[in-house]
Amino acid sequence: MAEIVPLRLTTNQALQMIRRLAADTENIVVIGHAKKRRHQRRISRRQIELCVQRGTITEGPFYNSKGNWQVNLYRHAAGEELTCTVAIEWATRLIVVTVF
């Protein structure tokens, strides 16, 4: 049975759901726009996965126009800075909208 999307979402609740889903990298889906930006900015799939798995929320959560909760995740590691905009398709997968 699918979980019901909450009407309110705290940063901690969003992070818990992201961590749970990101534990399996199959749940991290990089869509077309993010793929294009990833190649332009020479960002690897692994860097995106680590940002989603270990990053901190810098913006959001807010409800986007597609009906999903959305956040910006930031990670600084080994001199590299990366931000991923991620939509949470509730309790099923994480959609990487863009990376910078």
Automatic annotation (TrEMBL):
This is DUF4258 domain-containing protein. It comes from the Bacteria.
